[in-house]
Amino acid sequence: MPAPRRLLWILLAVAAGAIIYVIADARDYIRDFGVYQTAAERALAGEPLYRADDGFFQYKYWPAFALAMAPFAYLPHEFAKFLWFAISGGLIAWLLALSIRLLPDRRLSERALAWWIVLLTGKFIVRELINGQTNALLAVLVLGALAAIRQRRTVVAGALLGAAVFVKPYALVLIPWLAVTQGVAALLASVAVLAAGLLLPAGIYGWQGNLTLLADWYRTVSSTTTDMLAVRENMSFASMYAKWLGAGSAAYLLALASTVAAGALAIVVWWRRDRAHHPEYLEVGLLLVLVPLISPQGWDYVLLLGTPALVCLIDRFRELSVPWRLATAAGFLLTSLMLFDVYRRSVYIALTEGGALTVGGILLAVSLARLRSTSLA
Q: How many CA atoms lie within 13 A of 272 on its CB side?
């Protein structure tokens, strides 16, 4: 792309970001960042991190992430919030670029893929920014690991995936894949980073205090899950079954069975990895798409993590058979394009309260697996 045109697109992206920030700030959004900043302040002071009186905005990440956010604790809140928003915008741009550039055997041009992926992740991008979330950071760390694997630097890849777990614990789903596909050295690098991160808060809280923090984290996540299952934008298996059957043992068992089935799907895809030139891209993409399905607090915008998977599906879409094209398109309609502007408000509410987001995520996951079974990726 010529330099003047690239500069124009950068300026347009910055202008769009500025508009989103002004609107989000005026409506008191970007509140998740406030959770991280408060946790950082508490961590530096050696205070408890997990407090029920924080209500909906309880800190739910591992203690080490609060320490990683420590630089923001020294900044005025408004400036820190703006800085985080700007960093998030840069990470999102990096995520989109990496997802396109790392795609092996690309069929479409970078420009065509960029247009499509911005359209299909636009909803997730806006939600990520106005909430002040960390999914873009997690995704960039994972794609950094993918790039390192491509360069045969498996130890670096392992370290990056270990660090990703502290951004959001559900990155743990990638560790078994790493061990199976990249070997012992990569696994040991991840374990070393995980061990260091788990021990780090002991420098402030002491050994017993650190153990108490980890127990408090588990209690917080466990005790707040049930209330989140009825939220319309929750696309997890647990949420879908709770919406259908009500929260209870039947919904729990079905969610557990679906999670096992999702794991089996991932294993089948790994088993057939000899069909692809660079099999890691699709495998990582599939695991990232599965994250909001298997995590009980899997909000729809967490599907931003699945950007590599969406890029792969867009690129290979024309090579799928007609039934699978329809399945993929339905997946996009029920996830990326699930908006008030696409569906009437009453239809949107009925679909989201009926678990349509989860169905869409499942369609995307199985369509991605289909690419491997037909040796398209």
A: 16
The number of C-alpha atoms within 13 Å of 132 and in the hemisphere containing its C-beta is 21
Residue 283: which domain range? 231-377
Q: Residues 47-66: pLDDT tens digits?
A: 999 998 888 889 999 999 99
Question: Could you give the CA distance from residue 289 to residue 307 in angstroms, rounded to a whole number?
Answer: 8
Q: pLDDT for 203-220, tens place per residue?
A: 999 999 999 999 999 999
Is residue 141 assigned to a domain? no
- How far, in Å, are 14, 43, 48, 205, 251 from residue 8 at the CA level? 10, 42, 47, 49, 50
Tokens of 37: 């900043």
**120 in a structural domain:** no
Residue 246, sorted as left (phi over 0), alpha (psi -120 to 50) or beta, turns out to be left
Name the domain count of the chain: 1
Residue 3 makes CB contacts below 8 A (sequence gap 6+) with none
Q: Give CA separation, 116 vs 55, 94, 152, 277, 298, in Å.
A: 38, 16, 30, 24, 24
Mean pLDDT within 8-16: 77
**Secondary structure letter of residue 248 according to DSSP:** S
Backbone angles phi, psi at 159, to 5 degrees: -65, -40
CA nearest 165: which of 195, 185, 188?
Answer: 195
Burial-class residue 76 by CB neighbours within 10 Å (0-12, 13-18, 19+).
exposed
Taken as a whole, the chain contains a residue count of: 377
Residues 360 and 216: their CA atoms lie apart, in Å, by 34
Look at residue 307 and tell me if it is in a domain: yes
Euclidean distance between CA atoms 67 and 298, whole angstroms: 24
Least confident range from 54-58, 189-193, 239-243, 279-283: namely 54-58
Prediction pTM value: 0.94
Among 164, 141, 112, smallest CA distance to 311 is for 112
